[in-house]
Every structure is written in structure tokens, then in C-alpha cells.
Amino acid sequence: MMTLAALALLAAGPALAAGNCADASTQGAANACAARELAAADARLNATYNQVVGRLKAEPEARAALLEAQRAWIRFRDGECAFATVNARGGSVAPFLDARCQTRMTEARLQQLQDYLSCGEGEMDCPVPAGR
Q: What PANTHER family has UniProt attached to this entry (predicted)?
């Protein structure tokens, strides 16, 4: 079963391939563009998350803690964006606003995970071993 975001991406077509949602001429096109931006941010987040997991191969406790943190973060992101966009629920702009909120939060989480990948050797407040 396709998700609403996937359907929106298909509907957007190549016209919004550059991802500039300001150029969308209809709400549907803007919604699709925002969904595509979210998908791209989510792909970057997943790639970075997998890099962090890779560094934690020898650290099962840290890996489990990261998994729980990521699950909690997803619940928080979804709940926060549902709250932030509550006044638009049921309207045609709701998917756009929700996707934009989720994209902003996903990019912030991406930065957090990237920071973990930049830890120096011996940093006690960093659970991810320094890269080799």
C-alpha cells in the first residue's frame, strides 16, 4: 500500500524536480513538493543513522539506546508536527505544513547524528566512537 506522501510524489511529476516549492502553481503541487523534500531529508537521515549504527557495532548497549532514542524521536516529531499544524487539519494546506514541519525537524535530527559522527577521541559526552 502506498503512503500519502508517496502518492503525492507521483502526482508532482518532473515539474517540481528541483524542489523549489515556492514555484508550485497549485496547492496539490506544493504538497507534493513538500513531500518530496521530506523524503529527501528522511533519506539523508537514514543514511547518517546507518553510519552511526555502523560505528556502534561493538557497542550493543549504545546501539540499543540509539534505537530507542530514534523511535522516541520519531514519535516526538510526528506529535509535535501534529500539534504545530492542528489549525490546518482537514484543509488542503495541511499536508504541506505537516511535511515542512517534519522536514525541519528531520534536518535538525540529522545534524544531531552528524555531530555524533564528528566526536573526537575520548569525548565522554559522545556515545559514538571516533571514526577511523
A: PERIPLASMIC PROTEIN, PERIPLASMIC PROTEIN-RELATED
Cell output for 85:
499544524
Overall pTM surpassing 0.85 (yes/no): no
8 Å CB contact between 53 and 117: no
- Give the DSSP letter of residue 67: H
* Residues written for the chain: 132
Helices (H), 1-132: 4-12, 27-55, 60-84, 94-117
- Give the Cα separation of 63 and 3 in Å (integer): 29
**Is residue 38, in this structure, part of any structural domain at all?**
no
Q: Are 19 and 33 within 8 A, CB to CB? A: yes
Give me the domain span that covers residue 77. Answer: 43-117
- On whether residue 111 sits in a domain, the answer given is yes
What is the mean pLDDT for each group of 10 consecutive residues in the chain (132 residues)? 39 45 86 95 98 95 97 98 96 95 98 93 85 66
| Cell numbers 496547492: residue | 27
Find all residues with CB under 8 Å of 4, minimum gap 6, and list them. Answer: 35, 95
